[in-house]
Design a protein that fits this description.
By secondary structure, this protein is an alpha/beta fold. It contains eleven helices and 16 strands. The strands form three sheets. Strands 5-4-1-2-3-16 form a six-stranded mixed β-sheet. It has a five-stranded mixed β-sheet with strand order 6-10-7-8-9. It starts with a strand and ends in an 18-residue tail after the last strand.
């Protein structure tokens, strides 16, 4: 009988409760135990895990690596899926290997290239992957120059942080003056150019933004599974057009994603996003981690999390072709139980907090519905 596999997810997204569900429902029916850590005591991933622990706050990247190595040794972790401080962790892959833990994460070089969007666009363009026009701006004057160039070309300008994830900080620029119109309905992504310029001129420190044209739908997120030999084992595109979601295997999306994954060492699970600029797909973003929506590939008969864990353990699953493409769908919220007792948000440095087993509530673990867990 195959041995039990112990997997750790650190401070990950709420949607990864479904990642955890898929590990447990692996095709080989192999025993999987999941350890989760987070800074939020009410994170659903802590409730979904077999053992859970609050993470200490305020650790430097170097101190977090020491904390992570200690977790791996004490918990007997076989596979570690790092999100927080990923760059510092992958730089110490050899130390984790010595501790008996495989990192389900890319190479340090890949993380360095893609954690900065400007560097990512330069690297992608150099290997022939189309990217949108973009400007790196740090001052109000640079912002105005970029916006004026885009508008002269008939484009609508937007900006986002040069580093970041999940659409945090993304805004679309409008020259329409602020009025009651902007206070009706739900808050939107639009921000008045004059207000942005004024805020930049008052700011004590420069910003680090990318200004680019607004890209159009469809948005296609290509989930890739790549081995340490730089060969892609799985590539499936998830399409988004408004509320409608679907899947694609069209090479116009998959070919540039494979080129990036294989050429830059995006080992194990990565997510490469494209949108339309005019009539062609261009790169929007590269995530060097599993996407929050990765579990949606279950609608195509694919268990990507388990295939990735097998690959990290040296058990090559080979090239994975989806047996079918699932029908179009949408994403809705679904309830998940939390731990019965909340614990303090932050642990005092001198206090040792033991792992807390999560409640074994089978009814709380849903059957892989493509829904987003409440954050």
């Amino acid at each position: 009988m195959a041995s039990r596999v112990r997997v750790w997810l650190n401070r990950t997204y709420a949607e990864n409760v479904f990642f955890m569900d898929q590990l447990r429902r692996n095709p080989g029916d192999r025993a999987v135990e999941i350890h989760a850590t987070h800074g939020d005591a009410d994170s659903p991933v802590l409730a979904a895990a077999d053992t859970a622990e609050l993470e200490p706050e305020g650790l430097s990247p170097a101190a977090y690596v020491e904390y992570a190595l200690d977790q791996c040794v004490r918990r007997g972790i076989d596979v570690f899926v790092p999100r927080l401080h990923q760059a510092a962790i992958v730089a110490h892959r050899a130390d984790f290997r010595t501790a008996g833990t495989a990192l389900l994460a890319p190479t340090p070089e890949a993380v360095a290239v893609f954690e900065d969007k400007a560097t990512a666009y330069e690297a992608a363009s150099a290997v022939g992957v189309p990217v949108p026009p973009w400007w790196r701006v740090r001052t109000a004057d640079e912002l105005m120059c970029a916006v004026e160039e885009l508008e002269a070309a008939g484009e609508r300008a937007c900006f986002k942080p040069a580093s970041g994830a999940g659409g945090v900080g993304f805004r679309m620029i409008t020259r329409a003056p602020f009025s009651l119109t902007h206070l009706s309905g739900f808050p939107g992504p639009y921000v008045q150019l004059d207000l942005v310029v004024e805020a930049l001129r008052r700011a004590e420190e420069p910003v680090d933004w990318l200004v680019m044209p607004r890209l159009e739908q469809p948005e296609v997120s290509v989930d890739c599974l790549t081995g340490p030999d730089n060969r892609v084992r799985l590539a499936v595109g998830r399409t988004k057009n408004g509320r409608r979601r679907g899947f694609t295997l069209r090479e116009r999306w998959l070919a540039p994603a494979r080129l990036l994954a294989e050429g830059f060492g995006l080992h194990y699970l990565s997510n490469i996003q494209f949108r339309m600029h005019g009539d062609r797909p261009v790169l929007m973003d590269v995530n060097t981690r599993p996407a929050g929506g990765l579990h949606q590939l279950s609608l195509c008969g694919v268990n990507a999390p388990w295939a990735a864990v097998r690959l990290a353990l040296g058990e090559d699953p080979g090239v994975i072709e989806p047996p079918f493409l699932g029908q179009d769908y949408t994403v809705v919220s679904a309830p998940r139980t939390l731990r019965p007792v909340s614990v303090p948000q932050q642990r005092a440095p001198e206090t040792a907090l033991p792992a807390v087993p999560a409640p074994a509530d089978g009814a709380a673990r849903e059957a892989g519905a493509p829904a987003a867990a409440p954050a």
